Amino acid sequence: MKMPKDFLFGAASASYQVEGAWNVDGKGVSNWDVFSKIPGKTFEATNGDVAIDHYHRYKEDIGLMAEMGLESYRFSISWPRIFPNGTGEVNEKGLAFYNNVIDECLKHGIVPFVTLYHWDLPQVLEEQGGWRSPETADAFVRFAKTCFEAFGDRVRNWITFNETVIFCSLGYLTGAHPPGITGDAKAYFQTTHNVFVAHARAVEAFKEAGYEGEIGITHVFNPAFSIDEAPENKQAEVHANEYATHWFYDPILKGEYPAYVVKDLEKQGLLPEWTEEELDLLKRTAPLNDFIGLNYYCPQRVMKNDSALVMAGGRENSTGRPGNPSFDGVYKTVLMDDKVYTKWGWEIAPDAFLEGMRMLQARYGDIKIYITENGLGDEDPIVGEEIMDTPRIEYIESHLRAVKRAVEEGINVSGYYAWSVIDLLSWLNGYKKQYGFIYVDHANGLARKKKQSFHWYQEIIATRAAEL
Ligand SMILES: C[C@@]1(C(=O)O)OC[C@H]2O[C@@H](O)[C@H](O)[C@@H](O)[C@H]2O1
Predict the structure, then answer these.
(1) Which residue from 125, 274, 314, 452 lies 20 to 30 Å from 439 (Cα-Cα)?
(2) Which atom of ligand 1 is least distant from the CA of 297?
(3) Of 195, 219, 186, which is closest to residue 121 (Cα–Cα)?
(4) Which EC class, in a word (predicted)?
């Protein structure tokens, strides 16, 4: 069976990870421009000052995407490139850059799929409290409306936020992302709520303005499974899914927070400060979401955390390798002998991906799903002059097969975006952990080179995965 004709085969990137040009053409300073230069924060002191210079090479890159036959390119907009100070005056050269990227995509028949926030917050707003401050939500809505106005005549697919759980947990629990705060659970839950309010306001504004197209949010999808049938570990699975999935998906798709977590947080004095008006907003806007974006890489295998082990902070403990307990110490993730893992300890489990999509359909019904990220982070084998990334081909093939099974079962998956279209800067792993179909040679003027997987994905798209 071929994938449906309107199913989008895509690939993704993010502004800070590809653009570079961090202080060019009027762009303002982002929190990552500052944070990445604090000694010890990033891997090998890497930062996005240049990244892979997509800002100057986007035509070449989009030309390669067109050669691959890519149907859609998911990219993010650097907020400080549009509003150097977070709000106030618009930087026309910033608008011009994204107009050029969008027009280049459309010239090649590639659907632009735009993420508004992929972690690069204007530093001015970070200094005013970042996502702890309601002013940041106000500024985000203004940023979103400006982008809708500037690009909404050609962009029909909008994601408000990428992976709220990551920038809030690493920002306020492990300190591996700006503002680098550790152990502040109250701030963690408050910032997630403030982001959901900002999302809901942007969705309502998009719909009220009558723009064509669709809008949603992208969340991490990291389904939890108990290591065995022991009751205490099955309870750990329940707890993990409530906190890692329901806390994020329920307010968006159901318009209310999961009672299990609300009750638990109330007991600990960690419930966010929220108003009836905000809760009404979430309730009112939930049905307006056109889709949910899933970033799936791996499941989490969990068990009761029976030791005094507490969540550790810092970059090394934030790269997703199992072993870190939950913020409240209730459960921990574990490596299992009978599972297969990447070099960064992420389990390769397409079966869990399919099982997880079934879980989502059971809880949220027929909401449209885009797989907005999926891919293999690896140190690619180079054989002679060729990048023979066979492990990535095998990973994506097995996960695309799971997507195909889901579609055949009637789960409403409408697109698949590989992370990442091109090798780029990893926030915590520098240029060591790569995901792209296109290699970037940092020893040779950032020259681009097609990997083995480039040609493989080209064939998958051309045949609409008929053979999977
Ligand atoms: C932590 C990590 C990684 O480096 O493996 O997860 C996968 C992927 O998720 C994306 O949303 C991030 O923008 C990108 O940089 C990657 O980040």
Answers:
(1) 314
(2) 7
(3) 195
(4) hydrolase
Residues in Cβ contact with 412 at an 8 Å cutoff, skipping those fewer than 6 apart: 361, 366, 367, 368, 369
Asked if the model's pLDDT at residue 307 lies above 80, the reply is no
Q: Which atom of ligand 1 is nearest to the CA of 319?
A: 1
Q: Which residue has the tokens 């990033």?
A: 42
The Cα–Cα gap between 324 and 333 comes to 6
The pair phi, psi for residue 175, each rounded to 5°, is 75, 15
Residue 327 CB partners (closer than 8 Å, separation 6+) = 169, 173, 185, 188, 311
Q: What is the mean pLDDT of residues 220-244?
A: 98
* Token pair for 169: 């947990």
Q: How many CB atoms lie within 10 A of CB 89?
A: 9
Instruction: Output the CA 210–ligand 1 centroid distance in Å.
Output: 33
Helix extents (H) in 214-344: 231-241, 247-253, 259-268, 276-285
Kindly report the number of other CB atoms within 10 A of residue 191's CB atom. 25
- Which residues approach ligand 1 with their CB closer than 6 A? 14, 17, 162-163, 295, 297, 373, 377, 419, 426-429, 433
Q: How much is the ipTM here?
A: 0.95
Over residues 131-137, the mean pLDDT reads 97
CA–centroid distance, 92 to ligand 1, in Å, is: 30
Which atom belonging to ligand 1 lies closest to the Cα atom of 427? 15
Dihedral angle over CA of 375, 378, 383, 386, nearest 10:
40
Rounded average pLDDT over 426-449: 96
Q: How much distance in Å is there from the Cα of 3 to the middle of ligand 1? A: 26
pLDDT band for 94, please (50, 70, 90 cuts): very high
What is the rounded CA–CA span in Å between residue 258 and residue 373?
A: 25
Token pair for 154: 């050609």
332 and 324 in contact (C-beta within 8 Å)? yes
pLDDT digits (tens, 9 = 90+) for 375-385: 999 999 999 89
* Rounded Cα distance, 36 and 436, in Å: 22
Q: Map residue 215 onto helix, strand or coil.
A: strand
Beta-carbon contacts of residue 99 (< 8 Å; ≥ 6 apart)? 150, 151
- The residues annotated as belonging to the active site are 373
- Centroid of ligand 1 to alpha carbon of 227 (angstroms): 25
